[in-house]
């Protein structure tokens, strides 16, 4: 599946140990009028912001939508000229509140190597990709009634460089620090292009492997705000089903056994593999830890007879979960979004390869640092497998420095209702809002769009 991608080393003698459960972006043949690729940095550097904004405005029609229904802007920002690194964004101003006063929210997808177009077209964006008929041969978009841009100015960025439409010649990130440098540069230029939003409250949100990206960019903004004259009004962060500390969360034996999906023998086999993974992490043998994790996932999927890791209530992936990929590759979409003939997802494998050994480097300490300074929403669908809620609890059990630990351990979860119905359970401790969404898998807003919208709005408006 697309949110935690693992790419097979074809020539390796270990090939049978690598995951069969990952999504691979397929190259598409581009024909017809796709327009030109829009690089905005030269205009930003020259101070020609009006021209840049006019060029970035999405005016060409998207299939299924009258463009006067929705204001948006898109294009590429050059974050490193030496490495030819460019990041793609698509920005949607708030619709139900005054954009000049609404929070600005950054959305990041996981992977590593998964496009944030998933968030835009599949999860909580203003546009939902749908098939036009039962043959599933063509796609269009429809308006999403529970889009998060109803209450916030939403920016979707393909992060890190090489992901989705973002691309580079030689600037692939090998560490979270390098991810943060490029993404921060992108945000600085974005706020320069849209200066009227710089004083608005800013939140960083993401899911899955973005459970590492979000703390990274949040800490980077915090640090830069201490020393730079350029300020971003950072007010908090949100992480959904996040892989924040994989050594704590990437454990499945007991969880799947208690869910009735594995027997005692298979549980014990997974527990043995998890012990080896943790030993590798303790010795900073991160590639070996990654390999142990991959073989564990392959093992339990084989025993379960399933290929799906994003919810215990589903065995295999539905075609609809990837139709966004068909939509973004359409000539009409490419022209409207100013991506031209740039390949989509062609470098995602390289993104993953470069960050492979970073996967098991924990962001727990960064999360603790941020918890002491900013509001933090951590939410999980109770049906997820790959980044399950129990793994998040394991991370909190392993925390050592957060000043709210005592309050957290003594806190009781409260029932959270939406329109009178039980949506989930909320635990509050100092800056932490820990939320469990009922009947939701890995992509919480896709599983429960109305309830997730209520959760999101309550958090960014300080009502939670």
Total count of domains: 1
Mean pLDDT level: 93
Share of helical residues: 25-40%
Distance between the termini: 32 Å
Classification by helices and strands: alpha/beta
**Gyration radius, in Å:** 21 Å
Portion in strands: 15-25%
- Poorly predicted tracts of residues: 1-21
Shape: globular
The CATH architecture can be given as 3-Layer(aba) Sandwich
CATH topology: Rossmann fold
Instruction: Report the count of strand segments.
Output: 12
In short:
This protein is of the alpha/beta class and 464 residues long.
What attributes characterize this protein structure?
464 residues; alpha/beta; 10-stranded mixed β-sheet; two-stranded antiparallel sheet; 17 helices; globular; AB_hydrolase_fold; Peptidase_S10; hydrolase
What can you tell me about this protein's structure?
Helix 4 (176-193) packs across helix 5 (210-227) and helix 8 (264-282) runs antiparallel to helix 9 (286-304). This protein has a single domain (15-250, 311-460), classed as Alpha/Beta hydrolase fold, catalytic domain (Rossmann fold, 3-Layer(aba) Sandwich), CATH 3.40.50. The radius of gyration is 21 Å and the shape is globular. The longest helix is centred in the middle third of the chain and has 19 residues, at 264-282. The two termini are 32 Å apart. By secondary structure, the protein is an alpha/beta fold. The chain has a 10-stranded mixed beta sheet with strand order 1-2-6-3-7-8-9-12-11-10, with helices on both faces. Strands 4-5 form a two-stranded antiparallel ribbon. Helix content is 35%, strand content 16%. It is built from 17 helices and 12 strands. It comes from Tigriopus japonicus. Pfam families: Peptidase_S10 (PF00450).
């Amino acid at each position: 599946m697309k949110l935690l991608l693992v790419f097979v080393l074809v020539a390796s003698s270990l090939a049978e140990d690598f995951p069969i459960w990952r999504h691979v972006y397929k190259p598409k043949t581009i024909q017809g009028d796709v327009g030109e690729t829009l690089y905005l940095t030269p205009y930003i550097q020259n101070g020609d912001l009006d021209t840049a904004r006019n060029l970035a405005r999405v005016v060409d029609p998207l299939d299924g939508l009258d463009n006067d229904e929705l204001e948006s802007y898109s294009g590429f920002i050059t974050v490193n000229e030496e490495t030819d690194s460019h990041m793609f964004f698509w920005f949607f101003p708030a619709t139900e509140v005054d954009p000049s006063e609404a929070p600005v929210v950054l959305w990041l997808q996981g992977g590593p190597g998964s496009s944030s177009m998933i968030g835009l077209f599949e999860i909580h964006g203003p546009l939902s990709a749908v098939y036009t008929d039962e043959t599933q041969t063509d796609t269009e978009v429809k308006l999403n009634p529970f889009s998060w841009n109803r209450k916030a100015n939403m920016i979707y960025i393909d992060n890190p460089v090489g992901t989705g439409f973002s691309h580079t010649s030689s600037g692939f990130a090998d560490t979270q620090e390098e991810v943060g440098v490029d993404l921060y540069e992108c945000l600085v230029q974005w706020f320069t292009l849209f200066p009227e939003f710089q004083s608005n409250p800013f939140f960083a949100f993401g899911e899955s492997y973005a459970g590492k990206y979000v703390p990274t960019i949040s800490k980077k903004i915090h640090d830069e705000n201490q020393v730079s004259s350029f300020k971003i009004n950072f007010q908090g962060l949100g992480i959904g089903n996040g892989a924040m500390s994989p050594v704590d969360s990437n454990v499945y034996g007991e969880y799947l056994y208690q869910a009735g999906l594995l027997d005692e023998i298979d549980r014990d086999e997974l527990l043995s593999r998890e012990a080896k993974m943790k030993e590798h992490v303790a010795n900073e043998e991160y590639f070996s830890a990654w390999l142990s994790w991959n073989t564990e996932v392959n093992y339990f999927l084989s025993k379960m007879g399933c290929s799906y890791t994003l919810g215990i209530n589903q065995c295999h992936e539905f075609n609809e979960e990837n139709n966004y990929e068909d939509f973004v590759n359409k000539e009409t979409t490419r022209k409207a979004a100013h991506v031209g003939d740039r390949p989509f997802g062609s470098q995602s494998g390289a993104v993953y390869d470069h960050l492979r050994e970073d996967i098991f480097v924990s962001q727990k300490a960064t999360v603790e640092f941020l918890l002491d300074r900013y509001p933090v929403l951590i939410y999980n669908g109770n049906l997820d497998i790959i980044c399950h809620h129990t793994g998040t609890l394991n991370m909190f059990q392993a925390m050592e420095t957060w000043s709210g630990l005592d309050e957290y351990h003594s806190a009781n979860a409260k029932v959270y209702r939406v329109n009178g119905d039980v949506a989930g359970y909320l635990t509050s401790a100092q800056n932490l809002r820990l939320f469990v969404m009922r009947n939701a898998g890995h992509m919480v807003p896709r599983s429960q769009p109305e309830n997730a919208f209520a959760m999101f709005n309550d958090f960014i408006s300080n009502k939670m």
